[in-house]
Amino acid sequence: MAAVHWEYPVMVTAQMVTESATVTFDKLELDCGSTLAPVEVAYETYGALNAERNNAILVLHAFSGDAHAAGEGGWWGNMIGPGKAFDTDRYFVICSNVLGGCRGTTGPGSMNPETGCPWAMSFPTITISDMVRLQKQLIDHLEIPRLLSVSGGSMGGMQALEWAVSYPEQVASAIPIATTARHSAQQIAFNEVGRQAIMADPDWCDGNYYGGKPPANGLALARMIGHITYMSDQSMREKFGRRLRTPDQFEVESYLKYRGYKFVDRFDANSYLYITNAMDDFDLTTRGALPTLFESSRTRFLLISFSSDWLYPSYQVLEIVSALRSRNADVAYCNLEARYGHDSFLVEVGEQTELVRGFLNNTFKEELRRGNEGTRSVRA
């Protein structure tokens, strides 16, 4: 059973119908063996679901994102909307906040029903597959039998891969962008430094800071470290160079402090710990060699990487592409020339838009053909 709470009424922005809601499910079984009961999911939808219910696309956010993907202030607003890559005049786009988050979906800042207090660090360990399992409940709740596509960058790409491996029959296509099948030692190292910055803040209080002073300095420092990895040498050189903001402060120093403390206003430090740990633990190869995971998959794939992305370098995407091609999967791949590093999937969307638009158009045509053949079979 699921209860739905509409956060606010339907909005229409630039001819894009938007709905925002929270749905509550009875329970969610986790990989760690624990059960969350109940569990809430915050989500937004854009566009309209067609009568055949075959035009739905699940967009999956990166580490610090949320359900607000499009419209004013949306984290992927340059990709989702009328006439854009994920064309809401044609497709029904869904985005939910991930499990463990702090923007409406159950996480460490949520109330533990057994104690009446925030979970804090007693929140159970979560994984990327747990996040996807909860998304699957949402998609079933929306009565969508098969998704036209799942797509996301960075951690969103990990979720897209998890969908394709765990629920191949329910995913017509997947568009993982600037992502990996498992973190490298360097990627884990950067996340660990961020976690240590938070836990070293005296205000962290072993995670029990709710109702008091949050570990703002530690969380801001963690974000500053992360933000450096999202950019490239070229983009930082062009944006800041060695320019001074004040006589004793470089422009780049001022920028990082601004980004760090701005992050504190919208994100929970404990969510940072739980979600980065889930990213580091993600490893598709624990279930077998990558090629074997796609052995019988009929999902179509478009994978995209960026030339200046040193956090999620192209070789990690190519590893996935090679695994798919070794099994004759329907896969397209493009390494786009870009200046903005890992953030390119959010910023440099011109070529990315054309790739995604064409891929989705072909996928939708194939789904329509598949549906027509199924109708003819039933009639026969």
The total count of strands amounts to 17
Number of helices: 11
Measured between the Cα atoms of the first and last residue, the distance is 37 Å
Query: H/E element string?
Result: EEEEEEEEEEEHEHEHHHEEHHHEHEHH
Overall spatial form? globular
CATH architecture of the largest domain: 3-Layer(aba) Sandwich
> Which blocks of ≥5 consecutive residues have pLDDT under 50?
4-14
Indicate the topology:
Elements: E1 2-13, E2 16-25, E3 28-29, E4 35-36, E5 39-46, E6 56-60, E7 80-81, E8 86-87, E9 92-96, E10 111-112, E11 117-118, H1 128-141, E12 149-153, H2 155-166, E13 173-177, H3 185-199, H4 216-230, H5 233-239, E14 244-246, E15 249-250, H6 251-264, H7 269-281, H8 290-293, E16 300-306, H9 314-325, E17 331-336, H10 344-347, H11 350-379
Parallel strand pairs: 6-9, 6-12, 7-8, 12-13, 13-16, 16-17
Antiparallel strand pairs: 1-2, 2-5, 3-4, 5-9, 10-11, 14-15
Helix pairs in contact: 1-2, 3-4, 3-7, 4-6
